[in-house]
Amino acid sequence: MPLIVLLRHGETQWARDNRFAGWGDTALSDAGKTEVEQAAKAIVRQGLTFQRCYTSRLLRARQTVEILQASKVQFEGQPIADWRLNERHYGALQGLTRSAVIEKHGNVQTVEWRRSFTETPPPLEPSDPRWHEQLQRFPDVDPKLQPAAESIRTAAERVSGVWEETILPDLRGGQNLLIVAHTSSIRGITRIIENLDDEQTAAFRIATSMPIIYDFAPDLATYKKSEMSTGTKGFIRQLANRFKPRGVARF
Q1: pLDDT digits (tens, 9 = 90+) for 103-140
Q2: Is 52 helix (H, G, I), strand (E, B) or coil?
Q3: What distance in Å separates the CA atoms of residue 150 and residue 159, rounded to the nearest whole number?
Q4: Active site residue: 35, 87, 89, 182, which one?
């Protein structure tokens, strides 16, 4: 039976600083690297191998894949890095701390930008240096396709394209897939697999470096979902992620 393992990258430097990341290219923290190593051990221990690895084109996801490879997680060929698996774009909030955004816009508005299915943060302006830096990192992607800000909904719609074009055909071919991405891109994939409604999609959470496994029937009509244990610290992260307060902006 084909399967998918979904893995969010490890903790980042900006997460430690409580900064909005989005398409900002923050690196993994030392703790994040350790998280990925533990996830890799869990995957290897379970004896999982993959025909394909998909990831985003952001640094934190690429670093996560590199650590997985160094830790003997096996997949064939080179990882496929698709910009459509990037994190949700947080527009003009990217790089700002949570406290700075709350101070300027208030906690209610900050929570709406973070948790509402349809609310979009202020976009990056064409004159913003962060926009120019983004275009330089993705010179092969049509600027008209690159977002300047996204809601949860538009980020999920972006992810649905790579699902239909490449991931789903691989599944139909009976391949085991490893997808290393971000909260919003994994949210978009989970929305499709589990047929989540808008409210369920907005409420979706996933802890860093905690593998989720979907085992599919050969016809892909049914699946079994499970979460892979990565030890005591991973279990604590998982619980903390599930019980985050909804009324306070989180990252």
Answers
A1: 999 999 999 999 999 999 999 999 999 999 999 999 99
A2: strand
A3: 12
A4: 87
Which ranges of the chain have pLDDT less than 50? Answer: 232, 235-237, 239-240, 242-251
- Measured at the CA of 183, the angle between CA 36 and CA 130, to 5 degrees, comes to 100
- In a 13 Å sphere around the CA of 180, the CA atoms on its Cβ side amount to 29
Chain Cα centroid distance, residue 162: 14
Q: Which residues pair with 97 in a beta bridge?
A: 19
CA distance 127 to 65: 33
Residue 249: closest CA among 86, 104, 147: 104
> Which amino acid, residue 11?
E
Predicted confidence at residue 229, as pLDDT, reads 78
Structure-block tokens of residue 129:
């240096």
Beta bridge partners of 250: none
What is the model's pLDDT at position 1? 84
pLDDT score, position 234: 52
Which is catalytic among the residues 9, 11, 89, 182? 9
Active site residue 105: no
Is 37 in the active site?
A: no
Please list, residue by residue across 57-91, b when 16 or more beta carbons sit within 10 angstroms of its beta carbon and e when fewer do. bbbbbbbbbebbeeeebebeeebbbbbbbbbbbbb
Q: How far is 128 from 132, CA to CA, in rounded Å? A: 7
For residues 79 and 125, give the distance between their C-alpha atoms in angstroms, rounded to a whole number: 32
* Cα torsion angle, 140, 56, 26, 116, sign: positive
